[in-house]
Amino acid sequence: MTGDAAVQAEGLRKRYRRTEALRGVDLVVEQGTVCGLLGPNGAGKTTIVRILTTLLRPDAGRATVAGYDVLKQAALVRYRIGLAGQYAAVDELLTGRANLEMVGRLYHLPGRQARARAEELLERFDLADAANRVAKTYSGGMRRRLDVAAALVAAPPVLFLDEPTTGLDPRSRNDVWKIIAELVADGTTVLLTTQYLEEADRLADKIVVIDTGEVVASGTAAELKSKVGGERIDVVVPSLDQLADAATALRRASGAEPSVEPDDRRITVAVRGGAAALTAAVRELDAVGVAAEDIALRRPTLDDVFLRLTGHHAEQSGEPDLAEVAR
Amino acid sequence: MTVLDLPAPPSNPAARLRWAVADGVVVAVRNLRHIRQVPDKLLNATISPIMFVLLFAYVFGSAITVRGGNYRDFLMPGIFVQTVAFTCATTAMGVSNDMSKGLVDRFRSLPMARSAVLVGRTSADLVEGLLGIFVMAACGLAVGWRVHSGLGRALVGFALLLLFGFAMNWLGTIIGLLMKSPEAVQSLVFITLFPITFVANTFVPTENMAPWLRTVADWNPISALSAACRELFGNTAAPYTGDAWPLHHPVAAAFGYSFVLLAIFAPLAVRRYRTAVGR
Q: Less CB within 10 Å around the terminal CB: N or C of chain A?
């Protein structure tokens, strides 16, 4: 494999006992971009990250990170990556500062530099006030920031974030998103896994959808959404006898055939032109004397994409994580 | 952003060893710093041996007599050995905790020596074990235990205890890597170590045990260790009357057992660690 992509993987396979966690995954992440691995629990996202960060050997396939082979040049890869994860792997019994200094020393930074770097990161991640408190006393958001800071100690060109915002409150989630955006602006390549469609949509330049160990789709959020069709208008009418009139009005407004769900008193029709189409629909409904109970312009969400590609919704829980199964 | 001068990875064995030692020290310092946060951990490790000393010296000891000496002289080396054996629980819990908190994943993603996490852990636990031995020795002196052999031989005795403890710390590492949760680790260690440390000459001579039990006890490494410490500390009460080889040459046997255990457990632990993933 050649080229200057930050991450390249070909045909990655991994089996845990009877579970096939990865069934041949190809992945390319260009330098300086954010790639979002999107999929439900147990899809194989964490396994991919573990292989790319040299924690796990694949049964087949190969991968390079920052230009080095993850199997044959693992030590060189480790110098160029940072890893932060959903489990917030910080030492709870050390202070925030001691955590960062320790990681610096383990990257073999000289003592003074490890200390200076810890100071800089504490400042940058808004942890300076808590620097001398043990991490056990930190809130979930602070712990996650410390975890990300630890991953950045060596200023790695490639950063792996395994579900960086799982379990965080909305404000902390926003903080982490801001941090990631800043890193990317500095030229860092980020590979992140997430089960949150909103997160992938918002952060990732490219989204790779993973389900049961396979890549089922990839592309920008817009590309994926266009696969399931464009915008549509949803109308709910107050009573059943207005459905026919409303359907006629919407057919006239959009030029397309509306679909009617009598149970919900709902009519849906595909449209083009966004807000203008909505205005036209309101005007036509008005003309036939229907006052809609609810009317909205809907754009496809990544959940629609997921449903279309895999036959099930993305955000489901209760499935055991493959890493758990492997134990 | 700060410009960092990351050194290149070591290219020759000598440099690699220097890094392994440096990394091991960083991890050991990290583990020792934990004591300041959870002093009760150290307290637990020292209180139970003190309890054993007091219970056996004053409660059981009041009904136990040993030939040719006082029971407390006989008892103390046994309690030293038992306490050192139990340090494997400390190690196992620590390793298991690091596994369950995902710290092992972080360490394994860093360009540090593979051995450092385990060497750092076991050597920090060794330092803790040394502290425990000091506390116990003080406690033993308070209840009337004495070293009758001289400083040199006593130091060899303590060195033997540390070596055996180090081997047990590596056993603890394996247990910590294999078990699913710190709670499971704790019950496993206690269920296995209690019989192992009791079916031995730790607290009473083996001569009145049923023959089959006596054979097990006499060949138990714990017996050789206790007998070696008794010899090295000059606590010569209840001389051995059986015919098990290790107890006629306890010092050689105890060092032998310890080295063999270390030679088995350490490589097994490192091998297991290479493929261990967090949970």
A: C
